[in-house]
Amino acid sequence: MATDRPPVGANASLLLRLLLFAACLPSAQAGNLCVTTRDPAGQSLPGVSVTIAKRTDEAASLPFAPTQTRTDAAGQACFFQIPDGSYSVELALHGFLTATYQPIRVDVLRPASLAVGMLFGQVIELDISRIARITGVIRFRDEPAAEARICVYEGDSRHPANCSRPDRFGQFGLLVEPGAYVLEVTRQDKVYLRKSVNIPSAGTFLDLIPPLLPEER
Question: Rounded to whole angstroms, how far apart are CA atoms 92 and 166?
Fold first, then answer.
């Protein structure tokens, strides 16, 4: 008795179509994240250490070991096929302030990206529960003072506790522990501002430096 069976070629064709369709689908619960770094002048910054880690509040639900790489010549580092969820991204390079950005959301349906302008600063160790951030925007003769240098000194010491340079927009930020400091702003090796400041606690301090630098002292 004859049975109706599809030709062997038809089965192979159907299987091939299914395989091609599956190959076009994104991997379940996985996405991509690309990080781009630039220096204060807006130029690509290669060699930056980029570490991604699953946020603590999500790590238990879907474990993910911290992963590290470095930016390439174009200042870019990408992570592919990582579980979707919220991540922290730490950027570190000698001579620049180490910074952590979170939460960075990685979605299976949409690639995630992070573009960062890194600030100059010394490598320092701080108690994270007592960090204060001095930040703001400074200008000189109505132009961003990108070539300025901002330092804080403890007491009469001539060795700065930390220093930073503004980016091309005049934005700056530096980290210190609470305490009494002398804050100094120089530009082209000339002192434009020197004042005593008190950082009473952790937090962000915005108004310690006037937005428009005075003329040379």
Answer: 17
